[in-house]
Amino acid sequence: MKIAIIDYGAGNLNSVARGLAFVGTPGRITGDPAEIEAADALVLPGVGAFEACMRQVEPLKKVILERVDAGVPLLGICLGMQMFYEASEENGRHEGLKIVPGTVSRFAGGLKVPHMGWNSLSVEREHPLLKGIETGSYVYFVHSYRAEVSPCTVASADYGGAFTAIVSNDAGNAVGTQFHPEKSGPVGLRMLKNFAEMI
Amino acid sequence: MLQIRVIPCLLLQGDGLVKTVQFKDPKYVGDPINAVRIYNKKEVDELIFLDIMASRKKSLFGPKATGPRVDLIAKISDECFMPLAYGGGIKTVEQVRDILGTGVEKVIINTQAVEDPAFVRRAADIFGSQSIVVAIDARRRPDGKYEVYTHGGAKPCGLDPAAHARRMEEMGAGEIFINSVDRDGMMNGYDLELIKSVSSAVKVPVIACGGAGKIDDFAPAVKAGASAVAAGSFFVFHGKRRAVLINYPARAELGSVLD
């Protein structure tokens, strides 16, 4: 079993790699399209600004989308999850990977932004990623932009209103978390284990 | 519901952990890796490491500043399954990249943010505001006004903490860490006036630090506007005699005073 942690020059790769190793399914950090194509599962991490990350992912976009279409599990984390959407309004409007419909936009309404810290999940529908995880579990978020709740939402969280905490495509193989499972203690590590079991 | 973050703030001196009083008299309290392992078990919300040797021009404890020690930071980061922030001696974008590359979530910039505010903007543009924290060490002057200190609390720089915080927000800081030098290690409660003045000046989250001595000290800091509360002595000492004991209250106990 091979998990490729996609290295596109940004993102917090080491924490994700460490989390996967801890649950017994080590991943390989790689930016090589051939290795990504050969992997049994993909992880798309991400921190930073949307446009810069999309630009860096661009050369790998084709292979990622082909693998998702082929049913290979893909886990997007934080900005990696936001890249699933059609577009983001961070610093203008920039197109995403279009794995799920919708747009990512900034938190509004006098809130302290970034939304930073431990917030509780409301499970909206079943998904293998959530095996053994209940509504009310706390996970670690740090982000200034968010996607609204839609039919693709697997779990939501509340910060001045509900937003999407976990999103998935219709097939279920592409799943993204707005929070950082690799930094969310036992709950997050369980999700990484659940993800590895999706292979 | 978003929980109020409760954050142990640990001081590095050399390879060991120390705790200071008013930024002076560092007392050895243990090994950083051992502390992280205990905090992992206790499921702390987040950890902050500050290297007190890293930015002093002429160190109180040695001849010269060390700058960030990426090898030590990497060892600490390797053990952390909670969000981690590091501060101390950061002056370049390359240092920020190296530190974030070890798996640290946030870097904390203090002296360099005063000496070169545009550095904060450069770092935020590249790594995102969410990974850039500006720390402000402040003291109350005899006239009652607050003043920002740099170089590990050694050098007054004439800035007002609230005005400096607002400027740093404009530069792209995603979070402000406000520390009262006067209250450091005193365990007699946070400087609520300072917290209020800084958190009302910015829209980004503010972490309050300096003075926590008991669990009931946290709620007033939150009421004063803090989004998160940090403490040193409270999490490393136990009892009136200040015996060293790495500790962290159960979430339910924290919830009973904070939520």
From TrEMBL, chain A:
GO MF term list: glutaminase activity; imidazoleglycerol-phosphate synthase activity; lyase activity
Keywords attached to this entry: Amino-acid biosynthesis, Cytoplasm, Glutamine amidotransferase, Glycosyltransferase, Histidine biosynthesis, Hydrolase, Lyase, Transferase
EC number per UniProt: 4.3.2.10, 3.5.1.2
Pathway: Amino-acid biosynthesis; L-histidine biosynthesis; L-histidine from 5-phospho-alpha-D-ribose 1-diphosphate: step 5/9
Positions in coiled-coil regions: none
Subcellular location as annotated: Cytoplasm
Swiss-Prot/TrEMBL GO biological process terms: L-histidine biosynthetic process
Domain Glutamine amidotransferase intervals: 5-196
Pfam short name (any one): GATase
Catalytic function, reaction form: L-glutamine + H2O = L-glutamate + NH4(+); 5-[(5-phospho-1-deoxy-D-ribulos-1-ylimino)methylamino]-1-(5-phospho-beta-D-ribosyl)imidazole-4-carboxamide + L-glutamine = D-erythro-1-(imidazol-4-yl)glycerol 3-phosphate + 5-amino-1-(5-phospho-beta-D-ribosyl)imidazole-4-carboxamide + L-glutamate + H(+)
Record CDD domains: GATase1_IGP_Synthase (cd01748)
A GO term from the CC aspect: cytoplasm
Keyword Cell cycle included in the entry's annotation: no
Domain of life: Archaea
Protein name: Imidazole glycerol phosphate synthase subunit HisH
From TrEMBL, chain B:
Family: Belongs to the HisA/HisF family.
Pathway: Amino-acid biosynthesis; L-histidine biosynthesis; L-histidine from 5-phospho-alpha-D-ribose 1-diphosphate: step 5/9
Species, as recorded: Methanocella arvoryzae (strain DSM 22066 / NBRC 105507 / MRE50)
Keyword tags: Amino-acid biosynthesis, Cytoplasm, Histidine biosynthesis, Lyase
Pfam families: His_biosynth
InterPro entries xrefs: Aldolase_TIM (IPR013785), Glycosyl_amidation-assoc_WbuZ (IPR020021), His_biosynth (IPR006062), HisF (IPR004651), IGPS_HisA/HisF (IPR050064), RibuloseP-bd_barrel (IPR011060)
Top-rank taxon, per record: Archaea
EC number: 4.3.2.10
Enzyme class name: lyase
Reactions the enzyme catalyzes: 5-[(5-phospho-1-deoxy-D-ribulos-1-ylimino)methylamino]-1-(5-phospho-beta-D-ribosyl)imidazole-4-carboxamide + L-glutamine = D-erythro-1-(imidazol-4-yl)glycerol 3-phosphate + 5-amino-1-(5-phospho-beta-D-ribosyl)imidazole-4-carboxamide + L-glutamate + H(+)
NCBIfam families noted in UniProt: AglZ_HisF2_fam (NF038364), WbuZ (TIGR03572)
One annotated GO molecular function: oxo-acid-lyase activity
Protein name as it appears in the record: Imidazole glycerol phosphate synthase subunit HisF
PANTHER family cross-referenced by the UniProt entry: IMIDAZOLE GLYCEROL PHOSPHATE SYNTHASE HISHF, IMIDAZOLE GLYCEROL PHOSPHATE SYNTHASE SUBUNIT HISF/H IGP SYNTHASE SUBUNIT HISF/H
GO BP annotation list: L-histidine biosynthetic process
Lineage: Archaea, Methanobacteriati, Methanobacteriota, Stenosarchaea group, Methanomicrobia
